[in-house]
Design brief:
single chain, about 120 residues, mainly beta, about 0% helix
Length: about 120
């Protein structure tokens, strides 16, 4: 339904910062709820952050105060600013979109489309 392409992952030292980007297709991007999830090997995909079309936001407790989700509707892009990174943040980060719901979404099954993922590695 929606094509998503993540970028911005890489290797960073603990305490450092990265900004992930997710470029989306679709002329109605401004109405989509967007989300970020992450998955480490052998672990379930977990919620990180979500932003609604009205720019309401939600963040997982594990990243609250360190990560910030935002969107630029003119660029059809959602961002995840990650500060104070720690080794436990190491994972593949996935962008997701819902063209159906209008609120922040916290569960994987609530999203319609997924990107390919971008690797974030935080060294100690």
């Amino acid at each position: 339904q929606v094509q998503l392409v993540e970028s911005g992952g890489g290797l960073v030292q603990a305490g450092g910062s990265l900004r992930l980007s997710c470029a989306a297709s679709g002329r109605t991007f401004s109405r989509y709820t967007m989300g970020w999830f992450r998955q480490a090997p052998g672990k379930e995909r977990e919620f990180v952050s979500s932003i609604s079309g009205s720019r309401s936001t939600a963040h997982a407790n594990s990243v609250k105060g360190r990560f910030t989700i935002s969107r630029d509707n003119a660029k059809s892009t959602v961002y995840l600013q990650m500060n104070s990174l720690a080794p436990e943040d190491t994972a593949v980060y996935y962008c997701a979109a819902s063209a159906v719901y209008t609120r922040v979404l916290l569960r994987t099954y609530e999203y319609d489309s997924w990107g390919q993922g971008t690797q974030v590695t935080v060294s100690s």
